[in-house]
Write a structure and sequence with these properties.
Strand order of the largest sheet: 5-6-7-8-9-10-12-13
Bound molecules: iron/sulfur cluster
Distance between the termini: 58 Å
Strand content: 15-25%
Length: about 475
C-alpha cells in the first residue's frame, strides 16, 4: 500500500478506543491512560487538558500551593512542579497533600493532576514516582553517554547505550507500575543524548528516535502509562517531529497520547504566537491530548491563552478563514478579542506553513488598527523565517530552579537588544538546563544562585557569575565586537 500523508490520516481517523484506520491495513490501538478508574488521557480523544508549571521555589510550600490554587482557579487541569533534588521531593509531598486537601470534590477541578519535573537524577524521579500522579523525565538524562562525547557511535556502542538506558529506567518504571504513576517522556531538542545526535544529527528524526527508544523500553517492561512530548524552540522542527512520531506510532500499531509545546517561546505577542503557530497547527490536524503554552510571565497567563487557543481552534474548524494563492496566505479571522485573534491567526499560519511554501502573509480584520495588524504580521513573518525585522529573543518560562528576576531581565534584553535581526539571544533561568536548551543561540544570559547571571557566547561562558547590570554591559560589549 502506498504511504500516505500523516495529516490525511489524522483527518480521517475516527475517534474513540481501538479503531480501524486505513493505514497499512492495520488496526491501531489508541492508548487510554487511567488513574484509578478515571481515564485521564485517551490518545484518540479531541479533548485537551490544559497545563502550566509553577515558577515559585518548590521548597517554599506556601507560595507553591498558592500558585497552584491560582492556576486551578484559572482553569488548569494539570500543574507541573520542578523537583531539582532530594530536598524538593519532601516539599512536593507536602504541596500535594495541601493541594488535595483544599480541593472541593464537588467542583470539576477535583481531578487536578500534579506533575513532578525531574532532570538528571533518576533516583529523585524514583522517590517522587511513589506518591505523585505523573512524572516528567528527560530521556537525555537517563544516559551515561556524555554530551561532550561527540564522535559517531558505532552500532555496538549505540546499542550498548540504549541497553544501559533501559536498565537505568527499569527501577523507575517498576515504581510507576506499582503506584499507577504516569510518565511523560519529555524529549527536548536542547538536551538530546549525544549518542542519538551522533547518528541522526540534531534533527526532527533524532527527537523521534529518542522517543521511540522509550516506547521500546516501556513496552519491554510491559508499561503503557506514557505520554510523549517532543519540544524545540524551532517551531517547524517541533511540528514536523510530532507528526513524524505520530506516523511512526501508526506504523507500529499503537498511538500514545501527546503533550504539545514550543520551548523557550519567551513572552508577550511573540511568545503566544510561537505556541499558537506550533501547537495550534497540530491541534487543527487533530494531534495532541494536552499542551502547555510556555510564557516567561505569570503562569496564570499560560492558562488564559490556552483557553483562547482551544476556543479559536473550534471557530477555525467550523469556518474557512484562510486563502492560499501563489505562496501568499491571506487570513480573515474576524475575532475581536485580541489574544484569541492572535491564537486563531497563529494556528492557521502554522497549518499552512507545514504544508505549503509560504512566501508572504496577509492579515485582514477591520476591528484592529493598521499598526496592530502590521505588528502581528511582522511577528508571524519572523516566526516563519520569511522576514526578520528584529532580534530573535528566546527565553525559558522559568521554574522552581530560577533564582533571579528573569521576567525583568527579559524585558530589559528585549528593549536594549531589539535591533539585531541577524542574532538570536537567549535568556535562561538556570545553569542546569539553560546552556543545553539555548545551544544554538548566538548569545545568552543564564541565571545562577543569588540573583547572579553569566553571559554566554554560543556554548561558551564568557563571564563570571555577575550582577544583571554587569552582564548586560558584557553582552553589549560582546555584540559590538
Ligand atoms: Fe527551569 Fe528555565 Fe532551568 Fe528549564 S532552563 S529548568 S525552565 S529555569
Amino acid at each position: 500500500m502506498t504511504e500516505r500523508n500523516p495529516l490525511q490520516i489524522l483527518k480521517e481517523c475516527p475517534k474513540g478506543g481501538v479503531v480501524y484506520i486505513r493505514f497499512m491495513n492495520k488496526e491501531i490501538e489508541f492508548v487510554e491512560i487511567k488513574l484509578n478508574d478515571d481515564v485521564i488521557f485517551n490518545a484518540s480523544s479531541p479533548h485537551y487538558l490544559l497545563q502550566s508549571m509553577t515558577n515559585t521555589d518548590t521548597n517554599d510550600v506556601e507560595a507553591t500551593v498558592n500558585q497552584i490554587k491560582e492556576l486551578i482557579d484559572a482553569g488548569a487541569d494539570m500543574v507541573r512542579v520542578a523537583v531539582p533534588g532530594h530536598k524538593e521531593v519532601e516539599a512536593l509531598r507536602k504541596i500535594r497533600c495541601r493541594v488535595k486537601a483544599c480541593l472541593d470534590p464537588t467542583m470539576q477541578h477535583k481531578q487536578i493532576l500534579l506533575v513532578a519535573d525531574v532532570h538528571f537524577l533518576p533516583e529523585v524521579a524514583e522517590k517522587t514516582a511513589s506518591f505523585i500522579e505523573k512524572i516528567r523525565i528527560n530521556p537525555g538524562n537517563f544516559t551515561n553517554y556524555r554530551r561532550a562525547k561527540a564522535h559517531l557511535a558505532s552500532t555496538e556502542e549505540y546499542q550498548q547505550g540504549f541497553e544501559a538506558m533501559a536498565l537505568r529506567a527499569k527501577p523507575l518504571i517498576e515504581i510507576c507500575k506499582k503506584h499507577n504513576t504516569v510518565i511523560r517522556v519529555g524529549v527536548n531538542q536542547g538536551s538530546l543524548c549525544s549518542r542519538v545526535i551522533s547518528r541522526y544529527g540534531n534533527t526532527a528524526e533524532a527527537l523521534v528516535a529518542s522517543a521511540l527508544e522509550w516506547i521500546k523500553i516501556a513496552e519491554k517492561y510491559d508499561f503503557h502509562q506514557i505520554v510523549f512530548s517532543i519540544k524545540s524552540s524551532h517551531v517547524k522542527t517541533m511540528m514536523e517531529a510530532n507528526l513524524l512520531l505520530y506516523r511512526k506510532m501508526l506504523e507500529q500499531g499503537k498511538v500514545y497520547p501527546f503533550h504539545l509545546g514550543v520551548t523557550e517561546a519567551a513572552n508577550e505577542m511573540e511568545g503566544r504566537m510561537k505556541s499558537a503557530v506550533g501547537i495550534g497547527a497540530l491541534m487543527l490536524h487533530g494531534l495532541g491530548n494536552t499542551f502547555r503554552v510556555s510564557l516567561t510571565e505569570n503562569p496564570v497567563h499560560e492558562i488564559t491563552f490556552s483557553k483562547l487557543l482551544v476556543s479559536a481552534i473550534q471557530d477555525i474548524k467550523q469556518n474557512n478563514y484562510a486563502q492560499f494563492s501563489e505562496g501568499v496566505l491571506t487570513i480573515r479571522y474576524p475575532e475581536t478579542l485580541v489574544e484569541k485573534w492572535w491564537a486563531g491567526v497563529g494556528a492557521l499560519i502554522g497549518k499552512w506553513w507545514l504544508n505549503e511554501n509560504l512566501k508572504d502573509i496577509k492579515i485582514e480584520n477591520s476591528y484592529f488598527t493598521i499598526d496592530e495588524i502590521e505588528k502581528l504580521r511582522n511577528c508571524t513573518l519572523q516566526i516563519c523565517n520569511i522576514r526578520k525585522t528584529h532580534t530573535e529573543i528566546i527565553a525559558c518560562p522559568s521554574c522552581g530552579r530560577t533564582q533571579y528576576d528573569i521576567q525583568t531581565v527579559l524585558s530589559t534584553v528585549k528593549q536594549q537588544f531589539a535591533h539585531y535581526p541577524q542574532l538570536k539571544i537567549a535568556v535562561m533561568g538556570c545553569v542546569v538546563n539553560g546552556p543545553g536548551e539555548m545551544a544554538d543561540a548566538d548569545f545568552g544570559i543564564i541565571g545562577s544562585a543569588n540573583e547572579k547571571v553569566a553571559v554566554y557566547k554560543g556554548k561558551e561562558r564568557i563571564s563570571d557569575f555577575v550582577s544583571v547590570q554587569e552582564a548586560l554591559q558584557i553582552l553589549q560589549n560582546s555584540i559590538n565586537h
